[in-house]
Amino acid sequence: MSSLETRPAPDRPLIQIEDLWHTYMVGTPFERVALRGLSLEVRSGEVVGIIGQTGSGKSTVLQYLNGLLRPTRGRVRVGEHDLGRRGADVQAVRQMVGVVFQDPEDQVFEPLVGDDVAYGPRQLGLPFEEIRARVRWAMDAVGLPFEEFKDRYTFTLSGGELRKAALAGVLALRPRVLVLDEPTSGLDPRSRAELWERIRDLRTRDGLTLVLVSHDMDEVARQSDRIYVLHDGAVVAEGTPREVFRESARLEALGLALPEVTRVCQGLRALGLPVPAGVLTVEEAGDILAALLEARP
Amino acid sequence: MNEFELLRNITIGQYLPTGSYLHRMDPRAKIVATALVVGAVTFTPSLVGNACLLAACLLIVRLGRIPLGYALRGLIPAIPLLVILAVMQLLFFGRNYDPASPIVFQWGWIVVTSAVVRLVVISAARFVELLFVTSVFTLTTRTTELTHGIESLLAPFRRLRVPAHELALVVAIAIRFVPTLALEGERLMKAQASRGGRFGGSRWQIVTRTRQLVPILVPLFTYALRRGEELIVAMEARAYTGGAGRTMYAVLPGAPRDWLAPAGALVFLVAMLRAPFPF
Fold first, then answer.
1. From CA B212, how far away is CA A12, in angstroms rounded?
2. For a disulfide at A97, which of A117, A177, B141, B267, Cβ 3.0-4.6 Å?
3. What is the nearest CA distance from A193 to chain B, expressed in angstroms?
4. Do A123 and B190 touch (CB under 8 A)?
């Protein structure tokens, strides 16, 4: 599936962050400013990619998306909830925006897979049947068939399966927005490809809005409708993947690698061949190269 | 407004480089001095004595050029424990502790004598003093300095088959892991909250709060064990075999004036134990 084309978005963004500042360990000698006036928005139904080097503020922003951090300077609005307000309903925000942190398998604590996935819905105090239905849906959605996996011991799962179980634990809350921080880091290529496929399905089949934070530039480029490039706590570039990756020199100056295909095409351009900037997919590059070869005498 | 920053309130195990006299002091001297002050805290039985100790602690914090607010912050997580301890002592000691002391308050079976009140105040003060002293010690001492200091102090006992190097290592690892585990706990708390977990509520709802901790403590233990095993592998991969025949990169200088501090602490300890305080 290609989602490179921009699609019409509804008027009011689902999540809106304006001029957000954040300082860690305020009032201690270890104070560190992580966000400097960052603004971004997530519209309903779109896939937003966030890229940036370690320390650029990515993980800090994530924590604002579901109210783990509350703004003291700047504005954060999620749906109808203004998180800067003291009485904001944080639990409702956390149900609406599910955040899956890096290495989420660390958060699994129940012996049985089904019980662990049920932790969130149980905390919501839902009736048993509803919990069961949600767990079934979530496990099926990530590719761990409910009947087969619900009574398996969590420690017998493979790394990829455990990652999926953790993802199901967040999905069981039935969020509208799913935020994924490095969802495939540390997985083998096969589990990685499969997990990306499941994530794609969540968007196409279940209509989830996605926020992707990843070093896997190829996947971010392929999946996102829009990309934000973060550097030193602020947004330094924003646009469709094509627009963002066209400025290869600038991204490299910020210490970010281009998607592999883009890099190859950039190299060909540097050699003086007529290759357009900002090529993103293997298919696209294939067409261009085929045309090039045919044009040659 | 920040419910999840655990590390903010942990002052033990952090190092705060301010380059003060305490930072530059020979770690062995500092260990001895700290032990002596801890001794003074433990054995001073009077109110006036504890007031002196608190003053001494403030002086030590000053000497280490540590912001007082930061040193006090370590107290925040301990407040419920302190209060519970005080309440238990007030409720249950009754007349068992020093029966001769006059009764201050009586209601049903609850009897509070003035000796118990004194005890409560003194134990709270002791706790604060201990926290100050140990915090300042770790805030002014690098882990490597601490390890070398302990090893060097224990070296004479090696003849008695005391594993000096290994003990030093155990202490170093234990202290080093306090902030690491706090960070990991923070991460887990956020992860569980992101999937519907509820934490917090009032500081005093002890049962609820304890039950809420299961989804954090279970993975935290797993993490600690895994980290421990990784550490073992990392050490073995670098051919670590313990202390025998190991030389040191940094040799402890041990200037004579460094021993002024323990000498001072010793004088202080004796003064505390000997002084005829009226209360």
1. 37
2. A177
3. 24
4. no
Residue A172 · residue A121 · CB < 8 Å:
yes
What pTM does this model have? 0.77
Three-state SS at A293: helix
3-class secondary-structure state, position B243: coil
Edge-to-edge strand list for the sheet holding A47-52: A97-100, A177-181, A209-213, A47-52, A226-231, A234-239
CB A285 within 8 A of CB A265: yes
Which value does ipTM take for this structure?
0.85
Q: Give pLDDT tens digits for B31-44.
A: 999 999 999 998 88
pLDDT tens-place string over residues B163-174: 888 888 888 888
B74-119 pLDDT, tens per residue? 788 788 888 988 888 888 887 777 777 788 788 888 888 888 888 8
CA distances from B211 to A265, B54, B197, B206 (A): 56, 36, 11, 9
3-state secondary structure of B1: coil
User: From the CB of residue B267, how many other CB atoms can be counted at a distance below 10 Å?
Assistant: 11
Distances (CA, A) of B3 to A90, B11, B12, B70, B160: 12, 18, 20, 18, 50
Could you report the per-residue pLDDT of B226-237, keeping only the tens digit for each? 999 999 999 889
Which of A24, A26, A109 is the mutation pick for testing B, counting most B CBs within 10 A?
Answer: A109
Nearest-angstrom CA–CA distance, A68 and B107: 46
Contact list in B for residue A66 (CB cut-off 8 A) is 194
A169/B195 touch (CB, cutoff 8 Å), yes or no: yes
CA atoms of B35 and B29, how far apart (whole Å): 10
- What are the phi and psi torsion angles at A212 (to 5°)? -110, 130
